[in-house]
Automatic annotation (TrEMBL):
Pfam families: BioY (PF02632)
Predominant location category: membrane
Lineage: Bacteria, Bacillati, Bacillota, Bacilli, Bacillales
Record-given protein name: Biotin transporter
Protein family (similarity comment): Belongs to the BioY family.
Record-level Gene Ontology MF annotations: biotin transmembrane transporter activity
Species: Lentibacillus amyloliquefaciens
């Protein structure tokens, strides 16, 4: 792994941490707040590709586990990774990997609508399908109730998917994936 790749990975882990500064929106009926950090997950996959995108999220989770308060509300520590948000957080590297994988496949014919579809499929639906059942199990509620409760995230997450797609397409010329296809 090159130094440049390590810098991109660290940069995106930091970006997701910075998105944690935006205050969470707590919900009374579900123990997981609405946050801006899934925008960073989608951006990592869209901009960095599968390998670096996933590694940036793995690094982020390691930093959380060792206690850095990088999640919204200044949360951090291993306890967060076994709490109600655990499934959502642990799904992030998988989501970034799959977003990156499919964006790499369409890179030569990159279009905003294609990236939006990929972000919604893996950055919204997949994250909810992993996060909601884990939250339900941890809180002792039914998986169905967890999935129904998680629908509150869909409008905001779809908006983040659109924003991430527009940013990724606009930044295509400076993306590490563009450098690989150009042989730089």
């Amino acid at each position: 792994m090159s130094t440049k790749e390590m810098v991109y990975i660290a940069l995106f882990a930091a970006l997701i941490g910075v998105l944690g500064i935006i205050p969470p929106i707590p919900l009374g009926f579900i123990p997981v707040p609405i946050t801006a950090q899934t925008l960073g997950v989608m951006l990592a996959g869209c901009f960095l590709g599968r390998k670096m995108g996933a590694l940036s999220l793995v690094l982020f989770i390691v930093l959380i586990a060792i206690g850095l308060p990088l999640l919204t509300g200044g949360r951090g520590g291993f306890s967060v990774l076994v709490g109600p948000s655990a499934g959502y957080i642990l799904s992030w590297p998988i989501a970034a990997y799959l977003i990156g994988y499919f964006v790499e496949k369409i890179w030569s014919k990159l279009a905003v609508w294609k990236v939006i579809a990929i972000n919604i499929l893996f950055g919204v639906i997949l994250v909810s399908l992993i996060g909601a059942p884990v939250m339900a199990i941890i809180t002792g509620t039914s998986v169905w109730a967890g999935l129904v409760g998680a629908t509150v995230f869909l409008p905001g997450d779809c908006l983040k998917a659109v924003i991430a797609a527009f940013i990724a397409v606009q930044l295509k010329p400076v993306s590490p994936m563009e450098e690989k296809t150009q042989g730089v």
